[in-house]
């Protein structure tokens, strides 16, 4: 496989066609995956809207890269910096040129376009901090945090479901790279795609889903990453008390959001509380049948279940696809009232991945 080199490009330096689409393939760097993935393809008609979104996104700027024929230059000599340090002087940096991330050499093929911008490591760390601080905040301090959470939710929503001609097709392209994104962005993308398949195409529904996904795991901050991954892969190995507390997290998240985030809609609160409830009544925390809840809850619960199955396969090193998971969830050999999810919801979602053949 040939090596690929990348260099960062400024937004105002991207060559554009007359219709505003990019003349070159544009990539984003995923630090946690140590990989570059395509963000905007050459000639993509969604480019103008997506580039405009990036221009407006100043709080957490997204760097774009293009393919380069040349390898990255070697690091600059450090002699001058060392001399300044010995003299007790602070190194000088140009105020007009912010530091760029290191350009990596990545062998092999570049994946297909992503579903949208993803939270970087710094944003995930900030989100975790916000979660942990939320429970102890008092008014008026909570107001500042609420605005930060709302801003983050809006960014995720704009990334997951931008203004494009064919949102369904756009999001389907991003499903191939779901594993490279953070959990919040991945579940939001799944939830909005599944919502489209089940007739929820309004921005209001998508916003409720984005806010719910961002807040629904507030109650998990007391658990280690190792415990969370064990819960996904081999829950039977967790101590019974830890397992019980993890399954209580939707109630805890709902309570925190209800008490601290006064502007959250009732729909979002119900999504938070019920995102692990199942059609057969064997979900948690309350064990209610999801057919007694409103339909958007069933869509989110299906998206969360599919994501957890994907994650379990990844942790166990086994392969699967979203259509394969959905087909399995149809559970043809199981009586209807014992299925994990409504047959109608699963069938309509699966149809998104298997469109009818043209006549």
Topology:
Layout: E1 3-9, E2 26-30, E3 35-40, H1 47-56, E4 64-68, H2 79-86, E5 105-107, H3 121-134, H4 141-160, H5 167-174, H6 183-197, H7 203-215, H8 225-233, H9 240-247, H10 249-260, H11 266-274, H12 295-316, H13 322-329, H14 343-353
Helix pairs in contact: 4-6, 4-7, 5-6, 6-7, 6-12, 6-14, 7-11, 10-11, 13-14
What this model shows, in words?
Helix content is 47%, strand content 7%. It is mostly helical and 359 residues long. A hairpin with a 4-residue loop joins strand 2 (26-30) and strand 3. The chain is globular and about 55 Å long. It starts with a strand and ends in a 6-residue tail after the last helix. The relative contact order is 0.09.
What portion of residues belong to β-strands? 5-15%
Q: Can you identify the CATH superfamily of the largest domain? A: Hypothetical protein af1432
SS element count, helices: 14
The Rg value, from CA coordinates, equals 22 Å
CATH topology descriptor of the largest domain: Hypothetical protein af1432
Estimate the global geometry from the Cα principal axes. globular
Major sheet attributes: 3 strands, antiparallel
Mean pLDDT: 76
Strand order in space, largest sheet: 4-1-5
The number of domains is 2
Helix content: 40-55%
SSE succession: EEEHEHEHHHHHHHHHHHH
The CATH class of the largest domain is identified as: Mainly Alpha
| Class derived from helix and strand content | mainly alpha
């Amino acid at each position: 496989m040939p090596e690929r080199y990348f260099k960062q490009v400024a937004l105002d330096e991207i060559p554009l066609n007359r219709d505003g689409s990019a003349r070159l393939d544009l990539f984003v760097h995923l630090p946690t995956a140590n990989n570059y993935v395509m963000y905007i393809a050459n000639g993509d008609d969604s480019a103008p809207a997506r580039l405009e979104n990036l221009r407006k996104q100043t709080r957490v700027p997204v760097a774009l890269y293009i393919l380069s024929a040349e390898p990255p230059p070697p690091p600059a000599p450090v002699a001058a910096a060392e001399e300044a340090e010995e003299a007790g002087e602070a190194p000088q940096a140009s105020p007009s040129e912010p530091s760029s991330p290191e350009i990596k050499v990545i062998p092999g093929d570049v994946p297909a376009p992503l579903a949208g911008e993803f939270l970087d490591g710094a944003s995930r760390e900030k989100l975790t901090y916000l979660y942990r601080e939320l429970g102890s905040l008092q008014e008026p301090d909570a107001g500042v945090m609420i605005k930060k959470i709302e801003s983050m939710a809006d960014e995720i929503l704009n990334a997951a479901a931008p203004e494009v001609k064919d949102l369904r097709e756009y999001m389907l392209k991003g499903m191939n790279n779901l594993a490279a994104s953070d959990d919040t962005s991945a579940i939001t993308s799944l939830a909005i795609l599944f919502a489209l398949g089940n007739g929820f195409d309004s921005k209001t529904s998508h916003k409720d889903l984005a806010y719910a996904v961002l807040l629904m795991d507030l109650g998990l901050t007391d658990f280690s990453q190792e415990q969370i991954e064990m819960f996904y892969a081999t829950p039977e190995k967790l101590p019974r008390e830890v397992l019980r507390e993890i399954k209580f997290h939707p109630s805890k998240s709902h309570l925190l959001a209800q008490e601290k985030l006064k502007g959250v809609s009732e729909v979002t609160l119900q999504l938070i509380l019920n995102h692990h409830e199942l059609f057969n009544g064997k979900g948690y925390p309350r064990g209610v049948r999801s057919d007694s809840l409103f339909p958007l809850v069933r869509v989110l619960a299906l998206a969360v279940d599919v994501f957890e199955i994907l994650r379990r396969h990844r942790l166990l090193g086994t392969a699967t696809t979203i259509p394969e998971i959905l087909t399995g969830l149809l559970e043809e050999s199981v009586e209807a009232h014992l299925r994990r999810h409504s047959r109608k919801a699963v069938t309509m979602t699966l149809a998104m991945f298997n469109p009818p053949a043209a006549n």
